[in-house]
Amino acid sequence: MLRGCSLSVVVVLLMSSGVIAAIGQAEGFSIGAQNVIQRIGGAGWAEGGNLVMVGHGQRAFVVGAAAMQKETGILAQNASVYGTCGATKVQQNASADGRQGQLVVFGKHGFQAQGQSLTVSLDNAVRQFGSIGGAEGAQSFVGGQNQVLITPGGTSANSQFVGAAQFAAVSGGRNTNVAVNNSLDVRMCQNQIVTGCVPPKPPCDP
Fold first, then answer.
1. Residue 152 carries which DSSP code?
2. Which of 62, 116, 166, 187 sits most deeply, having the most CB atoms within 10 A of its CB?
3. If 0-12 CB within 10 Å is exposed, 13-18 middle and 19+ buried, where does residue 26 land?
């Protein structure tokens, strides 16, 4: 798993007419999830969850340049337990990462770069011990990221989006012992560097 704020690129260098032309791109994603449901002692009922979707995209064109990127997400978890006697439990963990990159180098003084990163982390623990019954869960993550580079001399864009959600519920009964733990981390990041971008010479230039 890679997290945090970094510009990560894979670069292909082409030599033509003494000019270095380059476009580099990279993407990533990394989702982990866990869903634990438990019911001990008596009647019972349980459910589960997990749903993951990611996306991706990349484009690169050379001579005048351009380079696009895109990532999406969606992670969802669900849970439930019901009871009669002692214990019920929901435990959920989730994580999502992200990352992109991009690099354009044309001519000996040309440069342009982008970045992006996106991390989410959710925890959800719902318990009821001693139980007549209860517990629920829920989690979510939505996603985002987008990048555009068009040069010479102009256009550069970044964007990011995240939506995140958690929910918990417990109930009780005889000699109730109830708990809810929710926690949530989101870290997002962007980078851009632009210096003079010199377009590559057409192959027939003297």
1. S
2. 116
3. middle
